[in-house]
Amino acid sequence: MQFRCQILFIALLWVNHDNNIMTLKDLIAEAHSIIPKISCNEFSTNAENYLVIDVREGTEIAETGSIPHAINIPRGLIEMKLSPSNENKSLNADTSIVVYCGGGSRASLAGRTLKDLGFKNILNLEGGYRGWRDFSN
Question: 70-85, pLDDT tens digit by residue?
Answer without folding.
Answer: 999 999 999 989 888 7
